[in-house]
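quick one before i forget lol
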Amino acid sequence: MSVRGTRAEHLTHPRTVALGALWNVLGRIGPLIVAVGATPFLIRELGVARWGVFTLALSLIGMFGIFDFGVGRALTRLIADRLATGEEAQAASSVRTGIVVLTALGAVGAVVMALGAHLYTTLALHLPPALEREVLAALYVLCASAPLVVLNAALWGVLSAFQRFASANLVNLPILAMYYLGPLLVLPFFNSLVAVMLVLVACRVVMTYFYWRICVQSMPSLRQARFAWGSVLPVLQFGGWLTVSNFVWPLMLYMDRFVIAAVLSAAATAYYATPFDLIVRFSVVPVAIMQTAFPAITTAYRQSPQHAARLFRFSSLAIAVGLLAPTLVVIGFAEPLLRLWLGASFAAQASGVLRLLGAGVLFMCADTVPAGLLDGIGRPDLNAKLAVASLLLYVPALFALIHGFGIAGAALAWAGRVIATYAARLLIAWHSYRPLSAEMLRLLPPLVVALFAVLTMLAARALAPQAVVLAGCLAVFGAVVWLVALTAEERAYVQARIRRRR
């Protein structure tokens, strides 16, 4: 076997994908634990109104991904594809070009987001004059980090193609933890949102430096690579459709809290955004899995379509198995969990929101797999068209439900959207990639059981029956996964591994 074949086989092997996913989970669970522990202290130090603004600022960082224009994922796909054909030198030129282009686009994005932050703060939030000036200055500081955010997206695309997730997450662990610990450290000395935002920007600077070092270690030819205008068009062509998705999906993910702040109040935003940020943290699992599975699927789908389809099934099952139990716990025990975490007063306002958001989070996470498959096989246009269709349906539903039911209506609109989107994308992926047919037939039964379990838990009320329902749903789901979703050979492999460990 050639060196090229050996390398491609290593990068697409399920064990490599699983280890990379494990590192990605660890790299996000650590900061998540810090965030959960630091949140009550940040709310106390900042106050509910400024905490609401802080959650908006973190959302703004996520929305900076709009100005990635799909280049980060395009670079992952381009490198993975060319590693399979031995064209690493050409890939290095494309990477260098993509980095330069993204930095320029990020600078433009910083100006656009600063103008948007000014208009939103002055026209929509209705803050007291002193707080308005503080919020504006803080958001201007944060917007200055937009070039770093999109540049990191490009560098992460390079790391993903080479499966360098161990090194990258050793960098991420302390830096992402400082997103919450850093503000707590500076607030006793500088009680200002501006100081808090400066900490976030400093974290991004450090992250960019270490990402670049790991990229050069993975791709030494990057040192000699030069900017090439001829490489701009291929990257932007693939990234063009991703740009639509990168604009629409972050917009739909975060727009609800901005609408709540404008229609209701900044305090209402805090009662919605805090459980939302908690529930969205579940995405560490699918993001971790798909960051490793996406380049593997991209490398495999041309030469081994069935292997790519199996990676699709394995990734979907890993997300469902890993997240169903936590999802059902959150739905069933939202009020006591929030009361333990943030107190009875906060729980009374936010527990209903958490239950509704919990009903959708499993399917939001599972949706990353068919989305990644469509990008990996070169059909990002389908993801983009679905994103636009979802937005057109979501926006009027969001406004109507917020006006009718407040923050609970926003949660209901969000949960309904993510479930409907996942069902639609599964059908699109099935139709677009025929090797999925056999794998999809094994996958659908546990997904149907998972949906039934979520709806059953949402309908349950008393704590004791909920515990019984939880155990029963997990037992049925586990049986369906074992007997239907796995092949006989896979069950035998799992049993052999268990016996060996014993």
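fyi The two ends are 35 Å apart (CA to CA).
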